[in-house]
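Students often ask why inverse folding is considered easier than folding. One informal answer: many sequences map to the same fold, so there is more than one right answer. In these notes we will look at a single instance of the problem. The structure comes first.
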């Protein structure tokens, strides 16, 4: 077969010259034909793009799954009811405080102090309470101030002096511009009422001790 691809040799060439191959003889023998590289591949009939097998047969992507639209959502901030929150550690009063419920116990406490406290002090407290009534009736006090004053009056009526004083300090810190003109009188009233209550308790203890001494047979008080 190799002899077909060799041209007839030159008579004059040397014995060691390489043979000369013929390109025309190779095309005439009908050797294996290759498809031309410029031929285009027809597109699929369904219109979907052709994807190489190596791209689809690879390993699955690594990473967190995409967020699901059905994931539970957290409630927005500020959605908790206001009634479940306590301010400054004090219980919350749901209803609006009335001016009569606040002023009446304060005026009664002032009357209890008259006769045991100097007149000048009582007059100053009375003037401060009048300012409180005027600002409350004029709508110059906010709802938090009214509610805390209602709590303060409750603690004062129950003789819980420390709790009443704590509420007074919280009002002076948080709402000083609203309460500065009359809260001084309320503070002084708490102190005077506390002092009066301590004197009354001391007098009661002395009276009880004297009564017990009189009931003991053979006991005589020193002259």
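Output (designed amino acids):
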């Amino acid at each position: 077969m190799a002899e077909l691809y060799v041209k007839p040799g030159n008579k004059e060439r040397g014995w060691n010259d390489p043979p000369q191959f013929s390109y025309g003889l190779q095309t005439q023998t009908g050797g294996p034909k290759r498809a031309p590289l410029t031929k285009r591949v027809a597109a699929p009939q369904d219109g979907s793009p052709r994807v190489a097998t190596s791209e689809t047969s690879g390993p699955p992507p690594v990473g967190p799954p995409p967020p699901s639209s059905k994931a539970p959502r957290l409630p927005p901030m500020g959605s908790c009811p206001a009634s479940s929150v306590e301010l400054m550690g004090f219980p919350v009063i749901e209803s609006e405080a009335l001016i009569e419920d606040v002023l009446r116990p304060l005026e009664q406490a002032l009357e209890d102090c008259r006769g045991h406290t100097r007149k000048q002090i009582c007059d100053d407290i009375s003037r401060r309470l009048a300012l409180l009534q005027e600002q409350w009736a004029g709508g110059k006090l906010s709802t938090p101030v009214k509610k805390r004053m209602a709590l303060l009056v409750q603690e004062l009526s129950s003789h819980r002096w420390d709790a009443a004083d704590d509420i007074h300090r919280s009002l002076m810190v948080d709402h000083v511009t609203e309460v500065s003109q009359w809260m001084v009188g309320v503070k002084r009233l708490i102190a005077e009422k506390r002092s009066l209550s301590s004197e009354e308790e001391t007098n009661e203890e002395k009276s009880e001790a004297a009564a017990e001494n009189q009931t003991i047979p053979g006991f005589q008080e020193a002259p």
